[in-house]
Amino acid sequence: NCILNSNTNLSEISSNIRSNDIILCELRKIFAYLQETEHKAYNPREFCKVYIMDQQPLNTTEQKDMQEFFTDLISKLEETSNQELKSLIKNLFGGKITNLVMSLDCPHVSSNLEEFYTIRCQVAGMKDLYESLNEITVKDTLEGDNMYTCSQCGRKVRAEKRACFRQLPKILCFNTMRYTFNMITMLKEKVNTHFSFPLQLNMSNYMEENLIPKANLCEKMSKEIDEDREDHDEEEPYIYDLIGVTVHTGTAEGGHYYSFIKDRSYLSEIKCGEDDSDFDSNNSNNNNTNDKWYLF
Question: What is d(CA 164, CA 138) in angstroms, rounded to the nearest whole number?
């Protein structure tokens, strides 16, 4: 039975890889067509025919959650026969976040490392992206009836709990949580409150190396942080420029998605000598002729 089950699992894995290879082929066709031809649009009919989601063919008449589709597509691209693509996907979109619990009554620190492809940001009660990031990394004190049980001491201790970012990808994706469940009406609702985000984002204040003093970490964790920091050889590794926004119009039950995509080809012109020093990324009144955005 064990041998049969093992062979069955291997067969399913091989089948999934073949299916994902076909999806990758159709995805390449889409981008090749958009990049190399002069047509204004491309019909992704063949891509939709081969795409399987929730163990069913993609239903184009049914609205899918953008975040769920993105996560599903990324996982499929990772599970292809192209091993180089898997490394590329992790480098482009994959990050790491650390969940730390630091005892106040003993020297022990507990940590749990999680990988992510998108950062989930609360919108309800938040005015902008910075407030949402502050909420993710806020320090929570565990005391009184909520004291932490130290696994090494075997006793209840006061502790500080917080999440912080260990490693960031080259392309940082945020998922704004605009859908909530109303416990009174028992219905899914959409949060339509204003939520702003900057044209340039500095993530330095949310990194583990800046939030947690090294004196509070064990030697192993300090070494891991230094190694992850060395992987970012850019001069400003935690500075991100806004390059795309996906907007949903409609209700929690249905609607339509459209996107704004930034043309980044002008960056090479700036590096060749154009002066962009007068541009303030936080000023919405800028008239920067270099910024070109496309509506999809």
Answer: 9
Tokens 């006793």 identify what position?
155
d(CA 287, CA 245): 19
4 pLDDT exceeds 60? no
Angle of helix 2-36 relative to helix 66-78, nearest 10 degrees, comes to 110
**Per-position DSSP letters for 213-237, written without gaps between them:** -GGGS-HHHHHHHHHHHHT--SSST
Give which of 200, 217, 238 is closest to 98, Cα–Cα: 217
d(CA 187, CA 201): 34
Q: pLDDT (tens digit, 9 = 90+) per residue, 149-185?
A: 998 888 999 999 999 999 999 999 999 998 888 889 8
> DSSP secondary-structure letter at 205?
G
- pLDDT bin (cut points 50, 70, 90) of residue 95 is very high
Cα-only R_g, the chain: 23
Owner of token pair 């499929």: 76
| 65-68 contacts at long range (C-beta below 8 A, 24 or more positions apart) | 66/246, 66/248, 66/257, 67/118, 67/175
- pTM score, whole prediction: 0.78
Write out the two tokens for 289: 């002729």
Range list of β-strands (E), 152-242: 156-157, 159-167, 174-177, 179-182, 187-190, 200-202, 239-241
Locate 77 and state its tokens: 């691209």
Whole-number Å distance between alpha carbons of 274 and 286: 16
